[in-house]
Amino acid sequence: MSRIFKDEYNKVGTHLLIVNETEIIMTISEIESIIGKKLPASAHEHRVWWANHENNPQCFWMRAGYKIESLSSSDLKKKIIVFHKI
Fold first, then answer.
1. Is 15 helix (H, G, I), strand (E, B) or coil?
2. Is the overall model pTM greater than 0.90, yes or no?
3. How far is CA 21 from CA 11, 48, 76, in A?
4. Fewer CB atoms < 10 Å away: N or C end of the chain?
5. Domain with 17 in it
6. Does residue 32 form part of some domain?
């Protein structure tokens, strides 16, 4: 666990590294609590915001060694995100 992330999104990456489970289920509210502010509306409404693209600044989970295998519309409506260790 030598990587500690400092920007607001990467605080969640650090959280994932500390928890260090194969699968981590978080609510959007939990993520917002960690970063200290609301995620953009697009994170609440559009699955593409959660796409596994390393170039996205919000893609903290990939930098922490996780991916989102699938995010259904139902999960997004429930505000549930499931991270899987790569």
1. helix
2. no
3. 17, 24, 21
4. N
5. 10-85
6. yes
